[in-house]
Amino acid sequence: MQLTTHNILPCLTTTKLTIVSLFLLFSPSRTTSQACKNTCGTIPIKYPFGTGSGCGDPRFQTRVTCNNQHLTFITHTGSYPVTDIDYSNQIIHITDPSMSTCTCTQPSKGFSLDWDAPFTFHDNTVFALLNCDVTLSPIFKSDRNNDSVSPACDSTSGSRVCERLNSCQAVSRLGIPVSTCCVYAPVDLGPSFEMDLRKLNCESYAGLYGFKELPDNPDAWKYGVAIKYKFNFDNEYPPMCGNCEKSNGVCGYEGPYNSFVCNCRSGINSTTDCLFEATWNGCSKFLHNSNDGLWMYALAWLLTWMLV
Ligand SMILES: *[C@@H]1O[C@H](CO)[C@@H](O)[C@H](O)[C@H]1NC(C)=O
Ligand SMILES: *[C@@H]1O[C@H](CO)[C@@H](O)[C@H](O)[C@H]1NC(C)=O
């Protein structure tokens, strides 16, 4: 067959179209398809936490979740906003919207961790149970009659916490005697400890930390709960995950065998790290930062070329 202008034209156009499509496909794009994010709202997310299924350590996935950019801590007693995560000391700070503080008192059902969750209370956490029925509450009974029965009120630093809390305007307005307040040192009680205020015959509670630093200033205490977490039994940071994070990836575990994946910025999952992206990034950074205009110019030129 003879090659004429007539039958070569559609062929050429197809080639041109393909080139333009490829050009558009590889044009720098600022959106990524990364399945696991490294932030939730303003909170940085690192191992063992994750922003979705397959991200972070599976044991943490249902306990700390990211919904609409809100990081939430979940136990059988409720869902609690996470205020921050102290990665170097392995502490999560949460708040409970139903608890009382120096500025506000309200009835609450209590707070508990799940017994099978990888969390414990941090030593700094203090629970002050407020407005308890001294005659009915088992905590007061055990304190008076039998020292060996726990839980019992902490009568040393505890009375100080109760006194100071009672000096807060919101608490003093209730007009309840300091003697109806009981302080728990939850560390001793372990994760299976249930703070069920109805059973304990207490009206509300305040969870706080930062008491040791400023024992006399209840306004300066942080109201919430400080919770410790461990990576695993030996509390060892998985080295694979460390390498993945160093290369800007997010650690995840996927599939029926929870195999390690390093979720990279481009959305590609690697079994090691995301160092391969560094070269791409250099490339696209060049195009983004210095030459967005040039890119558009090149695109316009290509389109013109295609049409002639
Ligand atoms: C990459 O890994 C993440 C996290 O485990 C997963 O959600 C996602 O589906 C994976 N993506 C691909 C393309 O395999
Ligand atoms: C205190 O309680 C413990 C455990 O319930 C019991 O074994 C012990 O006899 C009690 N002591 C007194 C003085 O009642």
From TrEMBL:
Residues 36-96 form the Wall-associated receptor kinase galacturonan-binding domain. It comes from the Eukaryota. It catalyses: L-seryl-[protein] + ATP = O-phospho-L-seryl-[protein] + ADP + H(+); L-threonyl-[protein] + ATP = O-phospho-L-threonyl-[protein] + ADP + H(+). The lineage of its organism: Eukaryota, Viridiplantae, Streptophyta, Embryophyta, Tracheophyta. This is non-specific serine/threonine protein kinase. InterPro entries: WAK_assoc_C (IPR032872), WAK_GUB (IPR025287). Its EC number is 2.7.11.1. Its main location: membrane. Pfam families: GUB_WAK_bind, WAK_assoc. GO terms for molecular function: polysaccharide binding; protein serine/threonine kinase activity. It is a single-pass membrane protein. Residues 1-33 form the signal peptide. Residues 219-266 form the Wall-associated receptor kinase C-terminal domain. Keywords: Glycoprotein, Signal. The keyword Metal-binding does not apply. It is found in: Membrane. GO terms for cellular component: membrane.
